[in-house]
Specification:
Helix 7 packs across helix 10. This protein is of the alpha/beta class and 504 residues long. 34% of the residues lie in helices and 13% in strands. Strand 13 and strand 14 form a beta hairpin. The protein has three domains: 254 residues, Alpha/Beta hydrolase fold, catalytic domain (Rossmann fold); 190 residues, no CATH class; 31 residues, no CATH class.
Length: 504
């Protein structure tokens, strides 16, 4: 999930840089195919922040960091996904980050890449006094993962706007979205997530220029099974041509997702106005899926290309999502609409090995000694703020609730909170280094409106947005619960003796 840290963060960084110390060390390197960066400021305080970047399916990200990087040029030299990584240098901390060795759902690879960066730092510059890990979006699940894979290594962590209910649950949400989309749009011409086929060959294409020898991109492939996201061949083509998909506003552009969605719903910008049929389909889709209209394209990216990368690249053609016995019960639907949806939606059974993969990479358990501070915007329509509820439950079940402080903001969408980062960094370090546990009230006082939008409001239960489900590879007793509504699959109950779902 490419973080939307665009213009505001640049302005804030530019304003802060003149008062910041210069950098004494810029170390660029490559380990196991992952490109790394270490920066040590002149006023280094002896501690380290490692940054995990957000999701991207764009393989152009996998390139070395510029060796001539400096405090006065990083805004021009660093990809947007990495610009926030240097913020801790403003407070005297060394920083490190890595591209990871792969794109897509990179969690398995990135565990090794983050650890390789940390070990390089220790070997070359010594053991830090304090070590922190932080990240946005996909980097948030990486943060939550690594502090549990290495539970005694990090003193503090800040996973922000992340899918920390776990990969399995969040991709079940993506599949549900895709299933609803197919129910609403499956028969609409041009609304299918498919590639073209070059004339006289099996080569995939989107336009004529993708075909060799002047051949036309004249035919469309058959629609894939929705649980696959895309066909294997179309997935391979799109991942090799990242400029062709529009992941979100920070991506380079392209129309693969927009084209299909526009065919069903009309222009996603509202101009020209949709036809009555398109408007009716969009209305039903939004009420059934419970996503904000402004997130249609981004969410459908994960319900197509994102799902396909998980299936075809990470799981050998197997899928970890399913809805075999699920009852869809979106509150904005009428009783008749619910009945029709549940009767007509595609039903899929998950593959056990793929579910196990997603749980391993990763479903947080709260098993870490780190002090953890999270931030999430309540208007995030991509990574639901309800992820934070399920993340908190993991810490409660592990008996470590006192190690977790969760902050919310009233606005920011997906990772768009900017001013909040500065007081959050100092709050985390004060907690770790001075024992001053943060509170929402203290953060609100330290960073009042209009610079910050912290709130005491909290997200609701995960299960009211995305139905919890028992799956092969995810049995009832592995599903964490604390007695909230929707915590457990329909017909099951929550056993508070061990914080797990159980049969009635």
């Amino acid at each position: 999930m490419r973080t939307i840290v665009a213009s505001l963060v640049l302005a804030l960084l530019l304003a802060a840089l003149p008062a910041a110390a210069q950098w004494q060390t810029v170390d660029t390197f490559t380990t196991k195919g992952a490109h790394g960066l270490i920066v040590i400021p002149e006023d280094w305080n002896g501690s380290l922040f490692i940054y995990a970047h957000g999701y991207s399916a764009d393989r152009r990200l996998l390139q070395p960091f510029p060796a001539d990087l400096a405090a006065d040029n990083f805004l021009q030299k660093l990809d947007l996904l990495f610009q926030a990584s240097v913020l801790p240098t403003l407070y005297g901390y060394a920083i490190a980050t890595t591209t990871f060795r792969s794109v897509g759902w990179y969690v398995k690879d990135a565990i090794k890449d983050v650890e390789n960066v940390r070990r390089r730092f220790v070997k070359k510059y010594g053991e830090p006094e304090y070590t922190y890990l932080w990240g946005h979006s996909g980097g948030s699940i990486m943060t939550a993962t690594v502090i549990e894979y290495f539970p005694d290594t990090y003193d503090g962590a800040m996973p922000m706007c992340g899918p920390n209910a776990g990969a399995r649950r969040n991709f079940n949400a993506a599949f549900d979205l895709r299933a609803v989309y197919e129910y609403v749009c499956g028969d609409v011409p041009g609304a299918q997530f498919t590639c073209g086929i070059c004339e006289g060959s099996k080569r995939r294409c989107l336009v004529d220029g993708d075909c060799p020898g002047g051949r036309a991109c004249s035919a469309r492939e058959e629609s894939p099974a929705i649980e696959d996201g895309l066909s294997r061949q179309c997935t391979k083509f799109l991942l090799a041509h990242p400029d062709r998909f529009n992941e979100n506003p920070t991506s380079p552009g392209g129309g693969f997702v927009d084209g299909a969605a526009t065919a069903c719903f009309g222009s996603l910008t509202g101009t020209p106005a949709p036809t009555p049929e398109q408007a009716a389909r969009k209305d039903l889709f939004l009420r059934a899926s419970q996503i904000p209209e402004s997130f249609i394209a981004t969410d459908l990216f994960f319900a197509s290309i994102g799902m396909a990368e998980v299936v075809h690249v990470r799981n050998k053609g197997k899928h970890p999502w399913g809805n075999e016995d699920l009852v869809y019960d979106a509150p904005a639907l009428s009783a008749r609409e619910k009945s029709d949806l549940n009767a007509g939606i595609a039903r899929v059974r998950e593959d056990k090995s793929a579910v196990a993969y997603m749980k391993r990479y990763y479903e947080p358990r709260g098993e870490t000694t780190s002090k953890v501070l999270t931030i999430h915007a309540l208007d995030d329509g991509l990574v639901l703020p309800e992820n934070e509820t399920k993340y908190r439950q993991a810490f409660e079940a592990a008996g470590r609730a006192d190690q977790l402080v969760q902050l919310t903001t009233t606005q920011g969408g997906h990772c768009g909170f900017i001013g909040e980062l500065f007081p959050a960094i100092t709050a985390l370090t004060a907690w770790v280094e001075d024992g001053e546990k943060p509170s929402t009230a203290a953060l609100m006082a330290a960073c009042p409106e209009p610079g910050c939008h912290f709130t005491t409001d909290e997200p609701g239960p995960w299960g009211l947005k995305v139905a919890e489900r028992e799956q092969r590879g995810a049995p009832l007793d592995s599903l964490v619960c604390t007695g909230l509504e929707g915590d457990c699959p329909a017909g099951a109950s929550c056993s508070l003796s061990d914080y797990s779902c159980a049969a009635p």
